């Protein structure tokens, strides 16, 4: 059965949900307060890159399955409204719910009486707060956490087996289940708080694993052990498996994982040992950049060197600089008195290039030039390491030191050229 569903908030989450719902035989009225964003979406241009997203939106527009609008009253035509505002974070990774609550307030003031689904990343207890704001017994509010990954979201939409429906109304939960059943056979139904907590739990667990792996790698380096081999053997244990991020590497960034750890830290009993547990996850992560730079300084001074960070964008198959690990690394490097700190990243869009320009950060257009001009290369992403191997830029690394954070150059013999330093070994390849 075709349903007419409203979407509120059109950045990454909203655009992906719109494309996914359309493909599952739904009509969509998609609302956003920003006129410029709506103007671009009408032309089939989403505000963030995701593989195949623009193409899918353009097809749906051509087939008249989507209506993009800045008129809140257009949402009177839908059966229910899905709130998909991407939650903003401050510099300390705390949630800023201002925009989400602004959208809720708009619904309340406009008198639009529609059931709601919230998928925005919100602290546990937020949906009950929304219920209180609306103060309308006729409106049901459910929470459906999303677990999309930037760069893989559209593929993950249907492959994700952990779709959860949080609702205190069984009949409303069944109604949402009918929608989700089009792409997920067995969504899990629970109460509001449980669904909100699921999102925190998944992200905090992943963050814990990353901090554990990086802390263990530091001990491995100290003791002369190979952290990558340790991780490989750990994954052979059927209680652990190979799905967890056990390889040492960069810190968790992008804000998402840190946000959920912070939320759990903020709501736990301050007199409980649990508080120190969540705080330690953040603390280990916050020291990661300094540790990696110290690894470089074990072999050569950073002072008066030309350094290029290979990878400014948050991750492959995206184009966002939001909470970029590259920018975080750049901030630390500025304290070392280098001649030049630059970026190379072909994924950077024109808008973000302008942002880097405003910050007086140079960005190379060509990888070969970036390598040739630099004394030290810092690899942040696997895809750029693969580019180095594929295009045979290895010979250009002569005399260079490479901090290979994702350990992507492991099988290359660069001893005749430069030196590779990894996060998890005491010896270099």
What is shown here, in short?
This protein is an alpha/beta fold. The protein has helices at 12-23, 35-42, 53-62, 98-110, 126-134, 153-159, 170-180, 192-223, 227-234, 256-267, 274-286, 288-297, 325-333, 350-358, 367-373, 382-390; strands at residues 3-8, 26-31, 66-69, 80-83, 88-89, 95-96, 115-118, 141-143, 164-166, 188-190, 306-310, 340-344, 362-364, 376-379, 401-404, 419-421. The protein contains 16 helices and 16 strands.
Describe this structure in words.
With 429 residues, this protein is an alpha/beta fold. 42% of the residues lie in helices and 14% in strands. It is built from 16 helices and 16 strands. The strands form four sheets. Strands 3-2-1-4-7-8 form a six-stranded parallel β-sheet, with helices on both faces. A six-stranded parallel β-sheet has the order 13-12-11-14-15-16. The mean pLDDT is 88.
What is this structure's SSE topology?
Elements: E1 3-8, H1 12-23, E2 26-31, H2 35-42, H3 53-62, E3 66-69, E4 80-83, E5 88-89, E6 95-96, H4 98-110, E7 115-118, H5 126-134, E8 141-143, H6 153-159, E9 164-166, H7 170-180, E10 188-190, H8 192-223, H9 227-234, H10 256-267, H11 274-286, H12 288-297, E11 306-310, H13 325-333, E12 340-344, H14 350-358, E13 362-364, H15 367-373, E14 376-379, H16 382-390, E15 401-404, E16 419-421
Parallel strand pairs: 1-2, 1-4, 2-3, 4-7, 7-8, 9-10, 11-12, 11-14, 12-13, 14-15, 15-16
Antiparallel strand pairs: 5-6
């Amino acid at each position: 059965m075709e349903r007419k569903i409203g979407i509120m908030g059109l950045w990454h989450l909203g655009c992906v949900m719109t494309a996914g719902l359309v493909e599952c035989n739904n009509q969509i009225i998609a609302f956003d307060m920003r006129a410029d964003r709506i103007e671009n979406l009408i032309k089939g241009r989403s505000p963030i890159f995701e593989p195949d997203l623009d193409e899918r939106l353009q097809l749906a527009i051509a087939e008249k399955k989507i209506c993009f609008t800045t008129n809140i009253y257009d949402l009177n035509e839908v059966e229910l409204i899905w709130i998909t505002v991407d939650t903003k974070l401050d510099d300390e990774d705390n949630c800023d719910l201002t925009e989400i609550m602004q959208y809720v307030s708009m619904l309340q003031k406009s008198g639009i009486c529609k059931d709601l689904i919230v998928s925005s990343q919100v602290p546990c207890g937020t949906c009950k707060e929304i219920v209180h704001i609306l103060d309308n017994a006729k409106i049901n509010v459910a929470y459906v956490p999303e677990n999309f990954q930037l760069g893989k979201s559209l593929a993950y939409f249907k492959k994700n087996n952990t779709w959860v429906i949080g609702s205190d109304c069984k009949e409303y939960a069944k109604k949402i289940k009918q929608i989700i059943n089009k792409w997920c056979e067995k969504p899990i139904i629970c109460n509001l708080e449980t669904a909100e907590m699921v999102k925190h739990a998944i992200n905090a667990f992943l963050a814990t694993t990353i901090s554990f792996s990086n802390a263990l790698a530091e001990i491995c380096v100290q003791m002369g052990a190979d952290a990558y081999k340790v991780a490989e053997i750990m994954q052979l244990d059927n209680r652990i498996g190979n799905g967890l991020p056990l390889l040492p590497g960069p810190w968790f960034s992008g804000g998402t994982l840190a946000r959920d750890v912070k939320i759990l830290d903020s709501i736990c009993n301050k007199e409980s040992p649990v508080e120190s547990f969540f705080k330690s996850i953040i603390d280990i992560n916050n020291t990661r950049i300094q540790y990696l730079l110290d690894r470089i300084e074990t072999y050569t001074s950073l002072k008066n060197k030309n350094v290029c960070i290979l990878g400014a964008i948050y991750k492959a198959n995206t184009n966002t600089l939001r909470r970029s690990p590259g920018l975080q690394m750049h901030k630390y490097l500025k304290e070392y008195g280098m001649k030049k700190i630059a970026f190379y990243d072909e994924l950077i869009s024109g808008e973000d290039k302008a942002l880097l320009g405003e910050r007086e950060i140079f960005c190379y257009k060509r990888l070969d030039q970036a390598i040739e001009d630099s004394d030290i290369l810092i690899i942040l992403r696997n895809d750029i390491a693969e580019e180095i191997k594929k295009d045979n830029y290895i010979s250009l690394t002569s005399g260079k030191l490479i901090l290979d954070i994702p350990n992507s150059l492991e099988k290359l013999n660069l001893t005749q050229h430069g030196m590779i330093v990894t996060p998890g070994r005491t010896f270099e390849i």
